[in-house]
Write a structure and sequence with these properties.
One of its GO terms (molecular function) is ATP binding. 38% of the residues lie in helices and 21% in strands. The chain contains 19 helices and 21 strands. β2 (18-27) and β3 (30-40) form a beta hairpin.
């Protein structure tokens, strides 16, 4: 494919609540994205715990590729940390465990007894999250499934393997396992050895843009595509793809990737591995072209999604309009608190958190929704302020990408809390980053700056200017951080 031509690329983008297949068309000065198939991602609770319904997801991928029509390449991204195990014949050994499963409760303390938390952070740069792959593997240490495993594939690599028959471990997603050294961009061999984790289970590392095989003959027959159709490694952690699609026009930006989670931080050239960074719970994940995604995980719109489920699915636009009329900052919670990680009873848990800190308890869905959105904006403010301090880097603008870019109230509250302008969009940032890496591998776009310039010119964006006094946000923060 030569420069000046156009290409068509299928982005398989699997989120924690839904999957989608998008087709991106990239040409000189053009970037169009069309959703061709969307399907739910519903985990299943079995007697042994919470599991992903991976075969239903894979079926949705095939349906999407069939709907996509002829494409020049396919790329796959998904959520992080979870994996499937294969036996010596390449067959899947059971449904992948969901990161919200309870099996990792108390595991971190066992790990730290062997590799203290300070040493673990210095070696891997990853914030403490109880569901990181490292903790999952320690939790699975004595299981029959792990004993029988010949290969471990992270979720997007598993889908790619089923499509191509070729196994690899894409680096941006591997960096979420807590088994990668962000300085060398290779495995942290000492960490794995001390914890008895067999790194030979992992397939060879791949970088975004590397070839990942071709669709197998039976996949071509199933989808109606004409081969050969290459599969390209992209930023297979959806946040890596989303950050690649931040339409920034300067380097002085912060980003918030919003959806089920909020990932708020900076794009850096090197990791920040200080003890202050560890205690602030920032993570150093890997991005495109040698970059580091320096960010903090925040619960995100999961809080609202779970409330909506508890309330029976009320009309969201009407609920957001009502929430906009609620007294601002009446009550806030710590949106990074692991107490909100598990599903179920979210309105009651938010009420309990407000009660425990002596704040008014939300008495209606609108008040609970306003509490959630104020709390997310406050968490965004804290993450972006602290990231700048820890990385010694100043920013002039905050980019909100992902599904939360559609939430006008959240975007305005984030601008107000941060005291910085917010540029919202694109909402489908992960799919766009996925497409652009594929297009770049075929010479249709240039470096990251060129990719971002194309995004800024072609995607609908909305700017929110900060209003009000940030003193009110500082006072609200004191309510939930006071000793």
């Amino acid at each position: 494919m030569s420069a000046g031509t156009a290409g068509s690329f299928a982005a398989v983008d699997l989120g924690a609540s839904s999957g989608r297949v998008m087709v991106g068309r990239v040409g000189p000065g053009t970037l169009d994205l069309t959703e061709v198939h969307r399907f739910p991602n519903r985990p299943v609770r079995l007697a042994e715990g919470l599991r992903w319904d991976i075969l239903t997801l894979y079926s949705g991928v095939l349906d999407g590729l069939r709907a996509a029509g002829q494409v020049d390449s396919v790329g796959v991204d998904s959520w992080a940390v979870d994996y499937g195990l294969l036996d010596t014949d390449g067959a899947l050994l059971g449904n992948p465990v969901h990161y919200r499963d309870a099996r990792t409760e108390g595991v971190a303390e066992k790990v730290w007894a062997t590799v203290p938390a300070e040493e673990l952070y210095a070696a891997t740069g990853l914030q403490h999250a109880p569901f990181n792959t490292l903790y999952q593997l320690v939790a699975a240490h004595d299981t029959a499934q792990l004993a029988a495993a010949e290969r471990l594939l992270l979720i997007p690599d598993l889908i790619s393997y089923w499509l191509t028959g070729e196994a690899g471990t894409e680096l941006t997603n591997a960096s979420t396992t807590q088994l990668i050294d962000p300085r060398t961009r290779d495995w942290s061999y000492d960490t794995a050895a001390r914890l008895g984790i067999d790194l030979s289970l992992f397939a060879p590392l791949r970088n975004p843009g590397d070839p990942a095989g071709h669709l197998l003959p039976h996949i071509l027959e199933e989808t109606g595509l004409t081969g050969p159709v290459p599969v390209t490694a992209v930023g297979s952690h959806d946040t890596a793809s989303a950050v690649a699609a931040v339409p920034a026009t300067t380097e002085r930006f912060a980003y918030i990737c919003t959806g089920t989670w909020s990932l708020a931080g900076l794009e850096l050239d090197a990791p920040v591995l200080s003890e202050a960074s560890r205690t602030a719970n920032f993570t150093n994940e890997l991005g495109l072209d040698g970059t580091v995604r320096y960010l903090r995980n925040i619960m995100g719109l999961w809080l609202l999604q779970e409330c909506l489920r508890s309330w029976g699915g009320p009309d969201l636009p009407a609920l957001l309009r009502d929430a906009a009329q609620v007294e601002p900052l009446r009550a806030v919670v710590d949106a990074g608190d692991a107490a909100f990680l598990a599903p179920g009873r979210m309105p009651e848990r938010i009420a309990d958190a407000c009660r425990a800190t002596g704040q008014p308890v939300p008495g209606s869905p609108a008040e609970t929704t306003r509490c959630i959105l104020d709390s997310l904006a406050l968490a965004h403010r804290r993450a972006i302020t602290e990231a700048q301090q820890l990385a010694d880097r100043s920013v002039d603008v905050v980019h909100i990408v992902g599904g939360g870019a559609h939430n006008e109230l959240l975007c305005q509250l984030t601008a107000d809390a941060c005291g910085l302008p917010v540029v919202a969009g694109p909402a489908e940032a992960a799919a766009l980053g996925n497409v652009l890496v594929q297009a770049r591998a075929r010479g249709l776009v240039g470096d990251r700056a060129s990719m971002r310039e194309l995004l800024a010119r072609t995607q609908p964006l909305r700017r929110y200017e900060p209003a009000g006094d940030t003193a009110a946000w500082r006072a609200a923060e004191a309510r939930i951080t006071a000793p």
